[in-house]
Amino acid sequence: MSTQRTPNRTLRFGVLAAVAVAIWWAPPPEGVQAEAWQLLAIFLATIGGLILQPAPMGAVVIMGLTAAVLTGTLSMADALLGYQSATVWLIVSAFLFARCLNKTGLGRRIAFRFIRWFGHKTLGLGYSLSLADLVLAPGIPSGTARTGGVLFPVVRSLCSAYDSEPGPSSKRIGEFLMLTTYQIHCVTCAMFLTAMVANPLMVELAREVAGVDITWAGWAIAASVPGIVSFIALPILVYIMVKPQIRRTPEAAELAREELVRMGPMSRQELAVLAVFGGVFVLWISGEWDALPWSGLPPTGVAFLGLCLLLILEVISWDDVLDERAGWNALVWFGGLVSMATMLSRLGLTEWFAGFVGGYMQGWEWLEVMAVLVLVYLYAHYFFASLTAHVTALFAPFLATAVAAGAPPYFAALTLAFFSSLCASLTHYAGGPSAVFWGAGYTDIKGWWSVGFAISVLFVVVWMGLGPLWWRTLGLF
Amino acid sequence: MSTQRTPNRTLRFGVLAAVAVAIWWAPPPEGVQAEAWQLLAIFLATIGGLILQPAPMGAVVIMGLTAAVLTGTLSMADALLGYQSATVWLIVSAFLFARCLNKTGLGRRIAFRFIRWFGHKTLGLGYSLSLADLVLAPGIPSGTARTGGVLFPVVRSLCSAYDSEPGPSSKRIGEFLMLTTYQIHCVTCAMFLTAMVANPLMVELAREVAGVDITWAGWAIAASVPGIVSFIALPILVYIMVKPQIRRTPEAAELAREELVRMGPMSRQELAVLAVFGGVFVLWISGEWDALPWSGLPPTGVAFLGLCLLLILEVISWDDVLDERAGWNALVWFGGLVSMATMLSRLGLTEWFAGFVGGYMQGWEWLEVMAVLVLVYLYAHYFFASLTAHVTALFAPFLATAVAAGAPPYFAALTLAFFSSLCASLTHYAGGPSAVFWGAGYTDIKGWWSVGFAISVLFVVVWMGLGPLWWRTLGLF
């Protein structure tokens, strides 16, 4: 069992060490300082570690930092600089919010509430689940926790209610519900800074590489129009492709009603979570407008305020905070990657890469360069099993290349950031939630990949066609 | 039960808020900027929170940081700067080392090993327990975990083996063993940078306030001579004062032998811990000497190396790391306090305080000033129930006052740092371990306070008399 999950752990460590040593000893190309080249060697081995996983993500990142410090490539302070990052602590706070949504049962209640309202037909059921995912997205920064943790059990029980199990009966309704819920999460992850764990990492990288400052509200506003359009189109597309046999689902609404009756009225704790989150979202989204007295409040400060209120109202205890393993895990790996990626950029390597690739694209219009970069970035996810690994490896060099080719930095950063989540549609190994939904067994590879590819085309049309029109209206470029 | 432990939670929050608001609105004294004064208001309310504990320590610190950010007193980056501190991550690593010592049983094995060797007489039994505490001290940065967690159960079972229970039979041997083990931990905490959780905080503060850089090796070498002398004298002093009725304890050595037999030979994991710790200590202690190839390795980098090896050797899993609640707790409260205390100093408040107090000591020799400051600092612990609260409140201003009076900064910083642990001898509410040992019920208040006071006099003689001679020999001042 254990050997099945970690075959050849030593071999994988060996491969990564060999990669690091080989790059380390290779002569750096002209214009790259030795320090930057050494850090690149350690960085690439670390990203390789996120892919090969000889040890859990956090352990791999700590090993990378340790190697950088002990070889004198980074000072201790530089190696730890990511842990001072406000976005890192925003993610930790969001994990604690997610815990409140789970602990109080508010997440499930929201899902059943939408099903009660809109779940009378199969397509409406798909939209109900999608709406629940959308509402929860700003507060649960992990697709695995949100779509996999909160929604998957609801979807699974709906399938069983319609005798739709893995196998032939999956065509009744299960395949449609599973694929819709999974695919919609690619959209919701892209729509909010706090909806996906690697989103804040890109904010950090964009600041470092392209000098643009993406705020919580700025992200949400830019994503809103293409987000809503693809949110509306996606379930219909899946519905047409998958053709569920059951079309009307009055029993689902009835089942939701029963679940809601069983839950009883909202508890004091659920109301507290609702009120605190409502306040946090208002402050996040309105923090941009200078006219308001709270303009300029840092989003992490607002999140800390929400956390303090949840602690004071005893919705969450300090013990809960210390138990939030996913949050501490994100702190460790996220902070460490921020340190390394930031230092790579400060040492000039990202810029050098952009100049290098740009050399092959001389004479191109920046729009052409952007289109090629985004498509390569999107479909490169066929080769990744983690959004974070993808982002860490490709976001900074691709952004630097786009900017060097003349693309407006804010526009380029946002487009790449959105496609960092949208790309999860492609495969059944795209990340944590795909493992959950694929593992349920309602779809075969052909079904998943063809729907995934069709949806990726939808995303390209909406986010690369409609998106820029909206961003131009906003005056982003 | 819950109301008994937290009476009037709201009242306590109210008192702290009132303190903060009152100071905030009071006009700052001349020479203090408004920002510094506002931060002082929040800082004093936070320290008040560590004492009154309306919420757990970590929660109080987060509330303090949030207040500082939302009022615009600190920027988000300044509020989080403590989380980049290498000493904060050194403490997190040390908590993980402590977990390995506990998990593998190596800590208990070491205790029984010493009892087997030296535990044939009552006094020797006291030294055996003391030696175990000394050996474990550099790797377990929490008196509560080390002396309370590893050693207390051993002491308790020894007492029972001699039919010495709370009440009259405590005089047989229990009172002596309990007091000796507790009191020796005040010495071991003072001897190593990584032996007490607030020690690294003082290193940060000393750097900020007095510009001195105290290293792991520098601390250990300076503490060694007064540490060893008080380590030898302390059990004898307790022995004379407490007069245990049982003088010879051949059964204890036999009991230890049986326990060791039951444990069997050292496991692969225990050997791994021993080897890794041995290596880490050698690197820590020898990192100072320029002639060695590894001179200048940062202690936190060395600790990370140890952690990586323990992960690779599978002594500790990444799940264990994420489960280390005490470590995450220390990260949160420690990092936040470092942020606030550092910013108070950078905003000039600590310096202003030193000048203010110094005004009353004009014309004094610096040695006189130091003597008064250290005695006040030591006996002020009658008013604290936590070493960390004591350190956070008093260390920086006392150090600044000493330096302003002409005391050599390194000398002043080390002396105050040592007495920050030694002061725990005084009361049964001095900190976490005192709650454990007092709670066992082997001593009455009179016994504890008289022994505690006598030992504090021993500490004054050894650490203020002998200590400076040793430090002068070392050329520290």
Short description, anyone?
With 477 residues, chain A is mainly α. Chain A has helices at residues 2-5, 9-25, 34-52, 57-70, 76-79, 86-103, 106-118, 122-136, 143-161, 174-191, 199-210, 216-242, 250-263, 268-286, 299-312, 318-323, 325-346, 349-359, 366-379, 387-404, 409-422, 432-439, 445-473. In chain A, helix 6 runs antiparallel to helix 17, helix 11 runs parallel beside helix 20 (387-404) and helix 14 (268-286) runs antiparallel to helix 15 (299-312).
Structure commentary:
Two copies of one chain form a homodimer. With 477 residues, chain A is mainly α. Among the domains of chain A are: 1-77, no CATH class; 86-325, no CATH class. Chain A is 73% helix and 0% strand. Chain A contains 23 helices and no strands. Chain A starts with a helix and ends with a helix. Residues 1-5 of chain A have low confidence and may be disordered. The A-B interface holds A 13, 55-56, 58-59, 62-63, 65-66, 69-70, 75-77, 79-81, 83-86, 89, 297-298, 300-301, 304-305, 307-308, 311-312, 318-319, 321-323, 325, 328-329, 332 and B 13, 55-56, 58-59, 62-63, 65-66, 69-70, 75-77, 79-81, 83-86, 89, 297-298, 300-301, 304-305, 307-308, 311-312, 318-319, 321-323, 325, 328-329, 332.
Question: Secondary-structure map with pairings?
Answer:
Two copies of one chain form a homodimer.
Chain A: H1 2-5, H2 9-25, H3 34-52, H4 57-70, H5 76-79, H6 86-103, H7 106-118, H8 122-136, H9 143-161, H10 174-191, H11 199-210, H12 216-242, H13 250-263, H14 268-286, H15 299-312, H16 318-323, H17 325-346, H18 349-359, H19 366-379, H20 387-404, H21 409-422, H22 432-439, H23 445-473
Helix pairs in contact in A: 2-3, 3-4, 3-17, 3-20, 4-17, 6-11, 6-15, 6-17, 7-8, 7-13, 8-9, 8-10, 8-12, 9-10, 9-22, 10-12, 10-21, 11-17, 11-20, 11-21, 12-23, 14-15, 18-20, 19-20, 19-21, 20-21, 21-23
